[in-house]
Amino acid sequence: MRSSAPMPRMSRRGRVTIGVLVGVFVLFTLLGWGVQAWTDWLWFGKVDYTEVFSGVLVTRLLLFVTVGLAMAVVVGGNLWLAHRLRPRLRPQSPEQATLERYRMLLSPRLGTWFAVVSVVVGLFAGLSAQSRWSQWLLFRNGGDFGVKDPEFGIDIGFYVFDLPFWRYLLGVAFTAVVLALIGALAVHYVFGGVRLQGVGDRMSNAARAHLSALVAVFVLLKAVAYVLDRRTMLLEYNDGANVYGAGYADINALLPAKEILAYISVVVAIAVLVFSNAWMRNLVWPGISLALLGVSAVAIGGIYPWAVQTFEVKPSARDKEARYIERSIEATRAAFNLGGVETRRYAASNLQPPASLATDTAVVPNARLLDPQLVSETYTQLQQVRGFYDFGPKLDIDRYAVEGKTQDYVVGVREINYGELTAQQSNWINRHTVYTHGYGLVAAPANRVVCGGQPYFVSGFLGDRSQEGCAAPTDQIPASQPRIYYGERMEAGDYAIVGKSNPDANPAEFDRPVGEGDDGAESYYTYTGSGGVEIGSFSRRLLYAIKEQESNFLLSEAVNENSKLLYVRNPRERVEKVAPFLTVDGDPYPAVIDGRVTWIIDGYTTAATYPYAERINLQTETTDELTNRGTFQQARENINYIRNSVKATVDAYDGTVTLYEFDDGDPVLRAWNKAFGGDLIKSKTEIPAELSAHFRYPADLFKVQRNVLTRFHVTSPGDFYSGQDFWQVPNVPDAPDSGQKQPPYYLFTQFPGQEEARFQLTAAVTPNRRQNLAALMSGSYVDGKPRLEVLELPEDTRISGPVQVHQQMTNNAQIRQQLNLLSSNQAQVQYGNLLSLPFGDGMLYVEPVYVKSNQQQAYPLLQKVLLSYGDGGSFVVLADNLADGIKQLVEQGEKAGAPSTPPPSGETPAPTPTPTPTPSSPSVTPPPVTGELADAAQRVQAAIVELRAAQESGDFERYGRALKALDEATAAFEQAAGPGSAATPTGSPSPGG
User: Fold this and answer.
1) Helix axes 50-84, 205-232, angle to 10 degrees
2) Helices assigned H by DSSP within 589-650
3) What is the average per-residue pLDDT within 775-785?
4) For residue 364, is it left (φ>0), alpha (ψ between -120 and 50) or beta?
5) 66-70, 331-335, 691-695, 963-967: which range is least confident on average?
6) pLDDT in tens, 341-351
């Protein structure tokens, strides 16, 4: 006789409590989702991109419902079928007696239990499916690339648009069958269809038929997986050749093995059904069939390819893998848009400065001296006016035509930095209704400094100009609407409430100071732009009070019937929100377009399933010294295809977002545009000419292409396999041990082979594990189309790379002494961009030298310029400015015996380098200093004293004058000492020979 204790029942109060808690949780969850969806709908409507919001939302809901419902039906249906097929009579056994209490618990509410399990499974499946909205939209709207893969002849569009979603569906099918099999097995066991004890069969006929059918479906899905694996092999890493894509062993061993295994899987699935139900009706032969499938997978799909790779490929991998390496090279260059790279040889055989340096008008005058990272502090201190204004940690480079002359400018916008507001200014009213915007785009020519090393500001003025001569008398880049409501310094919680209650009310928004000093007059303003969501009604204020968790939306008089709410104010975040399918460049930049400050942001379309193409990590390849210092870090995304397909703009005043098609041949962009109605992205022909004049080659794309080219500039499979011609990106020249890569830099210059000066992004690369210069790369736009160019130096070049050049220049005896004078315990030397400029069949290096006082709120000032020509060590100068430096370089070249006529047969004779003076031995006592030499030494001493006093005072104009006086005194001392003299002014470092 069986007996079982009844299951304890929960009290009515306990059930009510749990029900209330669950209801509250569901209510707040749904309320949060509802508020977020409603506010997003309002925001997208205001920026005119509701088709993106509705398209993504509907797609996610459909995937959630479809996949979740399908999963729930499969799992729930198999649970119900397992219960329906339960045996009516169960043999008596201790096992069945133990299971009886579980049957008594489940049976009264069995349908409810099955429904709960099915809903939970479907919920998780739906949540996973809704995140695949992008794959589904590409699957549905994708087309052809017009390029076929080299193995199967299938269009690349199948791999980019279709394959990812097919693989996902296959994964969902596997998951559904496995969960159904586990659930059905559990139900059969609980209700007696499957037994572990007792006499007779361990499984009823109905349970065996049910479970064997599920196993057969699983094996058939495995056959489908083997078929898809044949395609995905073209995406896998080939260890034998260190490239992506199927190699020799994959094509000749693994590929046929996958086909054989697919056929075997179909046979095994049939065998499982037949042996389990139609013949023998036991599990022995089905088990043997499954075991044979496993053995076949190991032997055919594992051991055989391994044997081919080990015994056939490895002994002669260079020849065996040549064909597949060539495929990878071609696919990678196509996927990263490197097919049109123009490569030219640049001998760089001239090692002495040519006289034409002094008369050049294309390269030398345009050499950029202002470093946008270093002078950001200078902009902030000189153009800040109020402590809450900020230019960010890095400025941007753009070009403008002023007075008929086009040149590059260092530009930045004067933004509100809410983190710099005082405690009194940071209350809710001030933070969100008073300090709402910045003011002005500040620009300075990139190759000019004034007033002791300051930038020469030409725009973005607030009220009075700075001291006379230190800024332009008029605004040379005028903006009719200079206010900055949307900028890079804006974070998620930095929303602004604008608009006044009636036309007669006084403006409440702080606009700008119009007087001198902190006590000067202040101007106030009222926002009149079209941006922002109206929040005048009570329902809107309640909605955003819940969203922002802020009661002042309801209580404050600053929120009135005319109020608008500006949020999502970072330009990059706005573009990401309206175009979630784009990867956005990490360095937006401002420009004055048609009198308005406009942010320009580059957008990329990417993919990770381009066959045979190299796969990279986007974050790793775009990280360098400037990452997170004014540029945004990319996500850790693996890609093997990228196009700069979109140029986006964000109006800094009203936040208007516009997407322009830039690459009209990109199939991925066409698919996304089609997915959102076909009119989401404006045609390339609609780009205004004034806007296109400010387009620049995007930094993140250039970094990716540069890094890929360090290997894939080698197009010969044999040379690629050996790897001896690979390049590398050098580290930061002034901090090579930091491990940070040297960022590319924008220049307005002319490279050899170019017809005129261009605004281009440039970078130097060195041979792998060496420091000499290997090539110069540049990216620019010619007639509105991107052009990537490479100047490749000979393999045996003597030209030094950036790290070597910096070390050679700063370690020169004469220069080191002058640098030591610039730095002290009161100041520090900082080095700007080291520019590598090909000129006169040689290499010109330019590196600005800044000095920054250690005093509080000090800023760097450009004091000197380092220049080098040739191999980096022979001709080196440290000059007050670029013109003097070029003059000194030319003079050094003439003293070294530069030939007045070209040498015969085009040969360049080796130059005679200027000898570097050797420091005197410390054991030798210099002779007494008397007469004219003593007077010169006293001048040097006086100049040093004045220099130190200027450093301590923090007066940089005085500091600049002191530096100049020291240079003159040192030159007079050297002249008085005469050649070969070892005399040194008392108390001063040796000025050198």
Assistant:
1) 150
2) 618-622
3) 94
4) alpha
5) 963-967
6) 999 999 888 88
C-alpha to C-alpha distance for 756 and 400, rounded to whole angstroms:
16
Three-state secondary structure call for residue 955 = coil
Residue 759 φ/ψ, nearest 5 degrees: -90, 110
Q: Please calculate the CA angle 658-659-661 and round it to the nearest 5 degrees.
A: 145
pLDDT per position as a tens digit, 471-482: 888 899 999 999
954 pLDDT exceeds 60? no
Q: Looking at the predicted structure, is the pLDDT value of residue 913 above 50?
A: no
Q: Which residue has the tokens 């405690």?
A: 423
What pLDDT does residue 790 have? 96
What are the angstrom distances between the C-alpha of 203 and each of 184, 209, 290? 13, 10, 19
User: 53-98, pLDDT tens digit by residue?
Assistant: 999 999 999 999 999 999 999 999 999 998 888 777 666 666 565 6
* Burial class, 11, CB count within 10 angstroms (exposed 0-12 / middle 13-18 / buried 19+): exposed
Q: Are 569 and 602 in contact (CB under 8 A)?
A: no
Q: Are 324 and 241 in contact (CB under 8 A)?
A: yes
- What whole-number distance in Å separates Cα of residue 530 and Cα of residue 47? 9
Q: Cα(3)–Cα(375) distance, rounded to whole angstroms?
A: 86
User: Beta partners for 764?
Assistant: 776
pLDDT digits (tens, 9 = 90+) for 417-431: 888 888 888 899 999
Ramachandran quadrant class, 561 (left: phi over 0; alpha: psi -120 to 50; beta: rest): alpha
407 close to 373: Cβ distance less than 8 angstroms: no
Mean pLDDT, all residues of the chain: 86
What mean pLDDT comes out for the span 933-944? 69
Q: What is the distance between the alpha carbons of residues 670 and 684, in angstroms, rounded to a whole number? A: 13
For residues 382-402, give the mean pLDDT. 89
959-967, long-range: CB within 8 Å, 24+ apart, which pairs? 959/452, 959/851, 959/853, 959/861, 960/452, 960/453, 960/861, 960/863, 961/452, 963/822, 963/863, 963/880, 964/880, 966/821, 966/940, 967/880
Tokens, residue 617: 């990590």
- The beta strand positions in 710-757, using DSSP E, are 727-728, 745-749
Distance, in Å, from the CA atom of 692 to the CA atom of 690, rounded to the nearest integer, reads 6
Q: Which amino acid is at 296?
A: S
Dist. CA 418–CA 388, nearest whole Å = 7
CA distance 508 to 522: 11
Structure tokens at 132: 């695949």
- What is the CA 103 to chain-centroid distance, rounded? 58
Residue 556 has phi, psi (to 5 degrees) of: -80, 140
List strand residue ranges (DSSP E) for 60-99, in order.
none
Q: Is 426 left (phi over 0), alpha (psi -120 to 50) or beta?
A: alpha
Q: Which DSSP string corresponds to 509-551? A: EEEEE-SSSTTS-EEEE---SS-SEE--SHHHHHHHHHHHT-T
Which of 17-26, 27-36, 227-236, 907-916 is predicted with the least confidence, judged by mean pLDDT?
907-916
918 versus 126: which is more confidently predicted? Answer: 126
State the distance between the two ends of the chain, measured CA to CA, in whole angstroms: 114
What pLDDT, on a 0 to 100 scale, did the predictor assign at position 306?
A: 92
pLDDT at 297 over 60: yes
Q: Where are the beta strands (DSSP E) in 613-697?
A: 616-617, 638-639, 641-651, 657-661
What's the pLDDT at 773? 94
> 334, 493, 511: which is closest to 437 by C-alpha?
511
Q: Locate 369 and state its tokens.
A: 């001296």
What is residue 334's three-state secondary structure?
A: helix
Contact 845, 834 (CB under 8 A): yes
Distances 282 to 78, 81, 921 between C-alpha atoms, Å: 21, 21, 99
Residue 1's pLDDT is 40
